[in-house]
Design brief:
- With about 350 residues, the chain is of the alpha/beta class.
- The protein has one domain: Rossmann fold.
- The protein is about 35% helix and about 25% strand.
- Strands 2-3-5-4-9-10-12-13 form an eight-stranded mixed sheet, with helices on both faces. It has a three-stranded mixed sheet with strand order 1-7-6, with no helix packed on it.
- Strand 4, helix 2 and strand 5 form a beta-alpha-beta unit.
- Helix 3 crosses helix 4.
- The radius of gyration is 20 Å and the shape is globular.
Length: about 350
C-alpha cells in the first residue's frame, strides 16, 4: 500500500505521552498474577486499529466458556491505567476482560483528516495524501462506536460466552456505558462508576448545531485540533479536544430509560464534577421498572478518589455485582469465581 504521510501536531504528540505516563508507572508497579494471562490484540473500529489487551484466566480449555467484561475509560484514560488494574482482578475471578484505547487515544491508531483535496484513487482505491492524525478527540459518536467494536471483538473470542457480556465504565466512560447498555442488546450487565450523565440544555444543543454549521462550511476547524480545549475544572486535560457537534443527540439519561439489564452505579460522596442526584434518579427509575439496580456511595472521597482510596471498595461492589448477575446459572460458577 502506498505510504500515507501523517502530519500530527507535535504538541498533541507530547501531551499525549505525558498523559499516559502516570498510568504506565502505576501499571508497571502492578505485576500480573500468575493465574492470569494477558494478550495484546487489535480491535478494528470502522477500519481503524484500536490497541487492546485481553486478560484471561490461565489454563482455559478450548471448550471452556466464560463471561466477559469490556472496560471503558474515562477522560484521558488508557488501557494501561485503571483498566489494567481492574482487568487483572476480573480475570482472577474467572472473567475474560478486555481493556482498550479509544481511537486516537493512548496506543490506538488515529482517525485521519485530509489536509488537502484528495486525488483520484487508483484501481485498488489507494492514494497518497497528506493528512492530520486526530488525537485525543472526546465525542460520544465515535467512542460509543468504539465500545460496540470492543463488544463485538470479545463476542468472537472462542472462550467467551457471548450471551454473558458485561461492560464497565468510569466518569466519562460511565456515561458511555450507560448509553451502550440501553442501546446494545448484547450487554447483559453494566457497572458505571462516578458517571457523567448530565443532560444537555437547549441552549447548548443550539450552540452545537451552530458549530456543526460552521464546521460543514469550513468556517472553523472541521475537527477541533487548535481549538476545542476543555475549560474550568477539566482544563488540566490539556491534550483532550472536545467536539460538541459530534455529541448532538447523545443522552445517557434517555438511554438509561431503555436499560433492561442489571446495573450498578458507584458514586463518590463528595462528587464535584457531576451530579449524584442525577445518577440516583436513574437508579430509582430502573428499580421502579423492576430492573435490578444498585446505587452505592463511597464515603469520604471526591470524584478522583475512586481511583485511589476508594478503588478497593468500588472494585469489590462491582465484582460482587457481576458475580451475582453475569455468572448466575453458569456451570461451574463456584470454581469460576475463585
Amino acid at each position: 500500500m502506498k505510504t500515507i504521510l501523517l502530519a500530527s501536531a507535535l504538541f498533541l504528540s507530547l501531551t499525549g505521552l505525558a498523559a499516559d505516563a502516570p498510568a504506565k508507572k502505576r501499571a508497571a508497579r502492578a505485576a500480573l498474577p500468575e493465574t492470569v494471562e494477558k494478550r495484546a490484540v487489535t480491535v478494528f473500529s470502522d477500519g481503524t486499529r484500536m490497541a487492546a489487551d485481553l486478560y484471561l484466566p490461565k489454563g482455559l480449555k478450548s471448550e471452556d466458556k466464560r463471561p466477559a467484561i469490556v472496560l471503558c475509560a474515562g477522560t484521558g484514560g488508557t488501557k494501561v491505567g485503571t483498566q489494567a488494574r481492574l482487568a487483572s482482578v476480573f480475570a482472577q475471578h474467572g472473567y475474560i476482560a478486555l481493556a482498550f484505547d479509544y481511537r486516537g487515544w493512548g496506543a490506538s491508531e488515529s482517525q485521519l483528516m485530509a489536509v488537502e483535496p484528495q486525488p483520484k484513487p487508483d484501481a485498488k482505491n489507494e492514494l497518497t495524501i497528506k493528512v492530520k492524525a486526530l488525537r485525543w478527540q472526546m465525542n460520544y459518536t465515535d467512542q460509543t462506536e468504539d465500545i460496540r467494536a470492543a463488544i463485538s471483538f470479545v463476542a468472537g473470542e472462542p472462550n467467551v460466552d457471548k450471551d454473558r457480556i458485561g461492560i464497565w465504565g468510569s466518569s466519562y466512560g460511565g456515561g458511555l456505558v450507560t448509553w451502550t447498555a440501553g442501546n446494545d442488546p448484547r450487554v447483559k450487565c453494566v457497572a458505571a462508576q462516578v458517571p457523567g450523565m448530565g443532560a444537555r440544555a437547549p441552549q447548548a444543543t443550539a450552540r452545537a448545531f451552530e458549530q456543526l454549521t460552521k464546521q460543514s462550511r469550513g468556517e472553523i476547524e472541521p475537527v477541533p485540533i487548535e481549538t476545542g480545549k476543555m475549560g474550568g475544572k477539566m482544563a488540566t486535560y490539556e491534550n483532550i479536544r472536545v467536539n460538541p457537534a459530534k455529541s448532538i443527540g447523545f443522552s445517557a439519561l434517555d438511554a438509561a430509560a431503555k436499560i433492561n439489564v442489571p446495573a450498578i452505579f458507584v458514586v463518590a460522596e463528595n462528587e464535584e464534577l457531576s451530579s449524584n442526584a442525577t445518577v440516583e434518579s436513574v437508579h430509582k427509575a430502573l428499580v421502579e421498572r423492576g430492573v435490578p439496580s444498585r446505587y452505592h456511595v463511597i464515603k469520604g472521597i471526591t470524584h478522583y478518589g475512586v481511583y485511589g482510596d476508594g478503588f478497593d471498595e468500588a472494585t469489590k461492589v462491582e465484582l460482587d455485582w457481576f458475580n451475582e448477575h453475569l455468572k448466575k446459572g453458569l456451570p461451574g460458577k463456584a470454581d469460576a469465581g475463585k
